[in-house]
Amino acid sequence: MKDAETDTVRGGPAPDGALDEAGHGARDLGFSASEGSGPGAGGEAAPLLSAERVKVVFPGRRGDAEARAVDGVDLDVRPGEIVALVGESGCGKTTLARSLLGLVTPTAGRVTFDGRPLEYASRALKAYRRRAQLVLQDPSGSLNPRHTVYEAVAEGLRIHGHAGDEQAAVADALSRAGLRPPERFFLRHPHELSGGQRQRVVIAGALVLEPELIVADEPVASLDASVRGEILALLLRLRDELGLSALIVTHDLGLAWNIADRVAVMYLGRIVETGDVERVLTAPRHPYTRALLSVLPESETEPVVLTGEPPDPSRVPGGCRFHARCPVLASGEAERAGVADACRTKDLPVLPGSGPAAVACHWAEAVGAEGS
């Protein structure tokens, strides 16, 4: 079943009108989200959402050490800005996103929204979640199979005591999400829709409350390649039309390449590189970012195969937390730069939540200092 409306990623369609099998294909045509004119592009407004030294620690089982899922993170999202939070599975990015929405209470640090610290009383969280909405990865799991599309989208209005015209609000949200005419979808059930249409219903359920921020956790991971570009283009259009801010949580740097204004690369509970997406992804400084980029289909460099698995968050290594898998350290480049010992023993600072590009890497800092 074809989606009701076809969008293309900003600047034009990918080859053959779709992204490739991995969901990429925009930047090689010479355009990018960061080149757009959305409110977040190039602005220096005060953050709408901000994490300040946030830590989330989970207790160990049967005497095991605590798991430091998020281990000191600063991260800002400005009004109208799309930020991609990128990293492997298990790096802590989903836990960080849930803490930003008040679904997980930080062990330390704080989250602020619109300049005010997030409060965790139920009434305060209810008010906050009207302004900040979550879009989950799997639309099939997000939608009750017994509910119609209308009921799914109207649910948020009913929870929050919407006093206006419910039907008009639902129709407007479905229309904005690309399901037109909206009345045609009111009485349908999730099994009657395509995967892309179900994801649009989930997005409409978030939009119906007119939020200022959307946190989308792997929003296209479960979709066919032919539909991914449409959903990414929809998110870009919502940013441009509504001034909507978004935090996109993903393992895929190719997705960040297509949609984000800024990118934050996360490894083992920390942000290791951050900055404008164009700068970070065309001139990555951290060996981990380089490794993630090297395996994209568009990459012209030899793929970097990292040895081993990410360390257990209950056993975070000393020094740079990436050093056990770092190809720069293994190849002797860090030794030649005089930072091998620091890589193994010296911790790195928490990177700023916004501002210029920044990297948490002893070798990158040493090489940068030599070249300056």
TrEMBL record:
Coiled-coil stretches: none
Positions of the UniProt region annotated as Disordered: 1-46
GO biological process annotation, one example: peptide transport
Keywords of this entry: ATP-binding, Nucleotide-binding, Transport
UniProt cross-references to Pfam families, sorted A to Z: ABC_tran, oligo_HPY
Any one GO molecular function term: ATP hydrolysis activity
ABC transporter domain ranges (all copies): 49-293
Alphabetized PANTHER family for the sequence: D,D-DIPEPTIDE TRANSPORT ATP-BINDING PROTEIN DDPF-RELATED, TRANSPORT ATP-BINDING PROTEIN
Family: Belongs to the ABC transporter superfamily.
Listed name of the protein: Peptide ABC transporter ATP-binding protein
Native source organism of the sequence: Streptomyces gougerotii
